[in-house]
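WARN no homologs supplied; continuing
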Amino acid sequence: MTTVSIHQPNFLPWLGYFQKIAESDHFIFLDDVQIQKKGSSWFNRTHLCQNNEKFWFTCPVSKSDGLYMGQVRYKKEEISSMLESTLRGIYGKSLNKDVDFALNLFNSLYCSDNLAEDNLKFVCKIVECLELNVKISRSSQLDSKKLGTERLIDLVAKVGGTKYLSGHGGERYIEKEKFSLNSIEFKYIDYSASLSTVTGSTSILQQLIVNEFDFKTISKILMI
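OK structure emitted
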């Protein structure tokens, strides 16, 4: 059984994103789709938390109709300054060392103007630090011309997958009965209970700060 999961390269994702990767044998970045035309999405925003209340932290990007992820640009100096101001505002003088480490990590990975590429680099770095044994591919390199559910099935098949692991957001658009017709098992992920809390559903960057960058603790939270 080869479990495959597929997801867009999100901006500073939450822990559940990495639980899905951890439970997969092969993870595919869906990196060649059009971005949302109006507003923001998880591609350029994430949740942070202060005083047990979540709020959006958004990376400003250049957008226009028909723009693909790889064409989206952002200003690295602007978002770096925004993140530092936000994190200092949350933690004040506490956890200074860990906030500094988080900012250095962010700045070392978000160092171009291509948001998709830098999101991808961040995710891969966390996967490396968590020592996850997973193969990683990009949809842009798998040459699938299909759309919708058929494209997911095609991508899973191209990497030899026999089981597709989906987040619950897929309930809105995935035609799951089509997977069995193609000899692929379909399953929704069962997230760790600790991720259902306000703090547990924020960006992994904030989780790393409050856990003093102890990746073993993060692994326990994710049950890996």
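Residues 76-91 form the longest helix (16 residues).
OK
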